[in-house]
Write a structure and sequence with these properties.
homodimer, alpha/beta, two-stranded antiparallel ribbon, globular
Amino acid sequence: MMRLAIASAAAVLVGATLANAAEPIALRDMGSFHVGGRLVEISGKPVKEVTFTPGGVPAKVDPNGTYQVEQMYVQYFLPANEKGAYPLLMWHGGGLTGVTYETTPDGREGWLNYFLRKGWAVYNSDAVERGRAGWAQYPDIFKSEPVFLTTANPFERFRIGDGAGSYDPDPAKRKLMPGSQFPNEGYENFVKQNVPRWTTTDDAIIAAYLAEIDRVGPSIILFHSQAGSFGFKVAQARPDKVKALIAVEPAGLGDPAKADLLKNIPTLIIYGDYIEKDSRWPKIRANGLAFADAVRAAGGSVDVVDLPQAGIKGNSHMVMMDKNNAEVAALIQKWLEGKGLTK
Amino acid sequence: MMRLAIASAAAVLVGATLANAAEPIALRDMGSFHVGGRLVEISGKPVKEVTFTPGGVPAKVDPNGTYQVEQMYVQYFLPANEKGAYPLLMWHGGGLTGVTYETTPDGREGWLNYFLRKGWAVYNSDAVERGRAGWAQYPDIFKSEPVFLTTANPFERFRIGDGAGSYDPDPAKRKLMPGSQFPNEGYENFVKQNVPRWTTTDDAIIAAYLAEIDRVGPSIILFHSQAGSFGFKVAQARPDKVKALIAVEPAGLGDPAKADLLKNIPTLIIYGDYIEKDSRWPKIRANGLAFADAVRAAGGSVDVVDLPQAGIKGNSHMVMMDKNNAEVAALIQKWLEGKGLTK
């Protein structure tokens, strides 16, 4: 009894040590690149004189000419002791960037560090028109206006708060989902991670993701929310290069008519908690289940995990930031190992 | 003679090995955070229905409410074996992001890796309205329109090409500065790193940088181009927290009337090549020299290095990307060691 208790306490300590990042991360290399995009001509506009720095020397800027647009940004971390059979590409959701997978809004390690520590070569990116990818002028190049979100919007829409009006600037006065695992105290930091987005750039985003996978080579894609459609569609366009798909709360899907293209790609779809309490997520999840069925009917293998049914409760839409993010990451890691995708 | 030749060849090989990143980078931690910013109210606008994902379920988006704006993004890499006496903050120039210090446009290691390998804790950031910092809607919050650059503009303005008309889409047809060290073959990738920028956000940028240094604590700042004024002004606002300043081709400066606030901060200012061939840089450099004189007159210590006079020739405005970037980094490292800023 005593011996078991000690062993158990030791196991808890080891777990805590890993979570606190005591082990150094050894990288054989790290760096970044941009990929994809196209050139666009703009003409017929007057030359401007721009003083780039107040008090500085003015420079003439001719807005006519060729613009580079719709490229994307990729940052990579290659572990010294690589244990993943393929690189792991991380694709963020709408109005966000690769920051999604970095440190959580309350300062814990995110999935980037988690999977890097497990020996995966991780390529974390900013999609077209997000973050370090840059964005193109509108209405000249992008044809619509960008969408900006209020501080309250994601709180209510991402199943953190319990419905409309649940947000309050005072963390103590917010009405969280019962048992929510979202780090409420870090919500302001999460809001700071939000960036403007367009809703008319899907084709450009997919083109850039195709360029990424063509450059990196055979890969596993872990994708979230808006990237649901990107992950599945890129896999349908490059079925030989995509070695596994991990869809975390996918808001969009692939082409059901081409479900057979995914039949050789092991796929995991994960949904968080409180789906039935939301106005949109029951339908979004039902679409996902139907798509999974279509892939299975074509001979594919799709595992759908509703986290609460797997005993993991309280997850918001931002699963990778929730307080139990390491528990969900461990579930993904175990799935990858089970599929023989580790060395 | 033979022995010397062999020793020399071995030294070259060792150098090449280091440049090729053969040694693993050991990190005690890595991560990111956002810092600074403010809340702004917007009211009186109609509610929109937005379909975030084509074919997805529409969501109502009320544009009225509170917006988080003017925060900045910081990514940090903490070496397992820290040798810098203070963290090294890297601040990029105008229309750019922290990508400036990452892999060079032609795929070599940038200054982020260089200084990390030397044992510096590096905090590489995206300033307000750049990259992962996000940006605010205009004209509601930002009062001016953003500036976009054509593919040709930086080539001619950053002393890569030899004057107006020097750019050509075909790398072989470009008229480079004679002896240019800029990696011409990677110029398209450099253009992909450029992001839109405003010219009316200096105060917000400085406020966020102050928040960064208040969070990180006593630091050394390495800053480039537009950040010239940010580095010196932040140092004037936090003279006790800034332990050294490394200004790389500063396009702006601090307040000359407050030069005495910099008297205890060792300062290095670096200029590249071809200054006299440019229409703006002779004046920009003269302003820098005058500012250095003002700091010296107040009892400060400022070292100004014109790289060509130090025997390092061919540098563009983007010194940290030039083919000899490691040589310039070594000059900076030596200067830091000489100032007793390493452990």
